[in-house]
Write a structure and sequence with these properties.
The structure is a homodimer. Chain A is α/β, with parallel strands linked by helices. Among the domains of chain A are: 138 residues, FAD/NAD(P)-binding domain (3-Layer(bba) Sandwich); 145 residues, FAD/NAD(P)-binding domain (3-Layer(bba) Sandwich), CATH 3.50.50. Helix content of chain A is 31%, strand content 24%. In chain A, the strands form eight sheets. Chain A has a six-stranded mixed sheet with strand order 5-2-1-9-21-20, covered by helices on one side. At the A-B interface, β5, α4 and α11 of A face β5, α4 and α11 of B.
Chain lengths: 423, 423
């Protein structure tokens, strides 16, 4: 297919699951594409908690964006930070003063964790969205055990060995189960003064159950499984305070030196750039065709939007949803260039998966519900399948094999700070 | 073997090649060991340049020290920073106020890079000693290509695409060759506005030849091989200035935004702790039995000392030398506990190896000298053999296989900073 001399310019902001899928699906279309991301890598976020718990290496779940698109000469990758959108003149503005013209703009700018008006909690309770977040959490977890090993005061030692996870969605459940595995199976023989199996892992959730997006029976199974791993599950308990010494929830104070935030997200600044309507979590409200109201040439997808396109329910903030939206946008752009129009976006839910511990998971396929070891195998195979490239599939499979056969985790590295790091 | 109730206390500072080997070789001796390191991991430094050039992941060349010693209950690993030694009362002092008593002390505290009185150069010309150093250099190299891709001014673009390595010892040669490989083979198809093959890699050396520790003919071969890869080799040219914009050498100014320091090291502060005699690079001068003069209960080994125990020549600062010294110290401690005394330490040089490019290396086994592809295979097999653990051997072998078969480097990650990073 030849590209016209002045082809349609598509600018895609964000190379997460949605933005990358839109780019892939525009292959062969008579367009030129500029893909902008402030990171040089696409990140496989569903496994980020495994970097945070020393199970996987950073490079096993991240790929250079340019490399993924090396065979697409019509795609230009820009390593740049977007500062705004001038919709009147159809320009994306960059922080370094540059700008990029578009005919069609796709905003796929994702979300960060949010602290519900308590941004000061972030320093004590980091969240998990980027590779740096993951290595920060990993450092805190590993340093906590190191400090406990050298602490002689039993009260302070107990606080070092208490790990609090706030929020019992999939990320919180996965973190809690994996930290329990780490303390029970990986670390015990490595320490001389502490019994790492006595570490407390406390999962605190404001709502009435864990994995609220799953059916009741799978939630109950997940909770029972976590408790068998030794995780203390506290439900219906909103956290009212985070400090360097611990958390306050339900009027109780819990001394803990390691707190991880998995409780909420806030969308990117895309709504602000456009002055467009957004919900409490700053998510753009989009039309049924995923365009921004009043801006038919601007699509918005993924975690930065809220869509009711799933039997009236909001589409969940998961990778398959973002990918379906990216694909819809690509098809929609191609249809428009042919002078056609697609029917509204409809989300098809393939299933929900969450790992609990080393060999346990829950899966909700709608009619079929799975739990335990069989669910874990399907979970593992599905995740390896969705990784990019044979090399990473082999590497992750090998890392998991070692964890399961020998309880050895490859990436127990404390980086960005020597023993002098406070924590 | 039973350990006496009040066993001999050995404190080893530094879990590099020397300190770890001493710990290993003391297995079964009637001693208790405290191994202190300010990092939680042992680092395979000979491959650090491969992390800096995106070829290997950090976790492929680093292992948690505790994990390596998990089956040695008489060994306690301390994650702490040493601030001094009180030789009179036989105590090691820690920065956090703690202290550890010893009967025998082994100082294996290594070296950092040194700027010969120009410490202000470090910000523009980072060296390569820790994992963080390596990810910093990796970030600078990758960001340079990203900036060049977006630079429209040809002069500034050329400066972005100029990579200067100062010092042509093994690390400098290996860095130069691998950056040339990266620019020529890995990156070209990923960029749209620049031809990465036109990047300049300039290796500047004050002395008269590259790889000064090797015989003349291997030096000449290494230089010719580098030049075939496109590396510009500048000999007899001391660098007199490093700035954010480039370097000055031999009166000439070279505009370059990426400078890497591989020119010199300075030993740790061990000599200062003891008020003991040291050479210009702060290396302790030790007795023929590797004890510190006037301190028969303190051994010092590895890069923090200078020893003339190789036919009168100084022992080279390489991993096998540190390991031989660690082994000697362990045997010496065991001999003393039996009331015996070992003959002086003698270094046995097994050979010198350096990789040049993707499939080239030089090896000097004394009588036998090898070069080219056969040397590269021996280099690769030797390095995989010396890695710790089957898992890491498999992982590194796989990473190298992918580089060689597909020119794909797994760890092209810009971390610790988004596109806003200056550089």
């Amino acid at each position: 297919m030849t590209t016209p001399s002045n082809p349609h310019q598509v600018v895609i902001v964000g190379a997460g699951f949605g933005g990358l899928e839109a780019t892939y699906r525009l292959a062969g279309a008579p367009v030129r594409i500029t893909l902008i991301d402030r990171r040089n890598h696409h990140l496989f976020q569903p496994l980020l908690y495994q970097v945070a718990t020393a199970s996987l290496a950073t490079s096993e779940i991240a790929w250079p964006i340019r490399y993924l698109l090396r065979n697409r000469p019509e795609v230009t990758t820009l390593f740049a930070t977007v500062s705004g959108v001038d919709a009147a003149s159809r320009r994306v503005l960059l922080e370094d003063g540059g700008e990029v013209n578009y005919d069609t703009l796709v905003l796929a700018t994702g979300a960060r964790h949010a602290y519900f008006g308590h941004d000061e909690w972030e320093q004590w309770a980091p969240g998990l969205k980027t590779l740096e977040d993951a290595t920060t959490v990993r450092r805190r977890i590993l340093v906590a055990f190191e400090r406990a090993e050298r602490e002689t005061d039993p009260v302070r030692r107990a606080a070092r060995l208490t790990f609090v996870i706030i929020g019992a969605g999939p990320t919180g459940v996965e973190l809690a189960g994996t930290i329990a595995d780490l303390a029970r199976d990986t670390l015990p023989r490595d320490f001389r003064n502490i019994d790492t199996r006595k570490a407390r892992v406390v999962l605190i959730e404001a709502g009435p159950r864990v994995l609220a997006g799953f059916p009741d029976d799978l939630s109950a199974y997940a909770q029972a499984s976590l408790e068998r791993l030794g995780v203390e599950v506290m439900l219906g308990q909103p956290v009212t305070e985070c400090t360097r010494d611990g958390v306050v929830y339900g009027g109780k104070t819990l001394a803990a030196k390691t707190i991880i935030w998995a409780a909420g997200v806030r969308a990117s600044r895309a709504a602000e750039w456009l002055g467009a309507p957004a919900d409490r979590a700053c998510r753009l409200q989009v039309e049924p065709d995923l365009t921004v109201p009043g801006h038919p040439d601007i699509f918005a997808i993924g975690d930065t939007v809220t869509i009711s396109a799933w039997n009236g329910k909001p589409v969940p903030g998961i990778a398959p949803a973002a990918k379906q939206e990216g694909r819809y946008v690509a098809e929609s752009i191609k249809a428009r260039l042919r002078g056609e129009k697609l029917p509204p976006f409809r989300y098809k839910h393939a299933g929900s998966l969450a790992q609990i511990g080393k060999r346990l998971a829950v899966i909700d396929f709608g009619r079929i519900k799975l739990r335990g070891a069989i669910a874990w195998w399907i979970w593992g195979i599905a995740h390896i399948y969705f990784l990019i490239g044979l090399r990473n599939r082999l590497a992750v499979a090998m890392s998991w094999l070692w964890i399961h056969a020998r309880d050895q985790r490859a990436a127990r590295l404390i980086t960005q700070g020597s023993s002098k790091v406070t924590g």
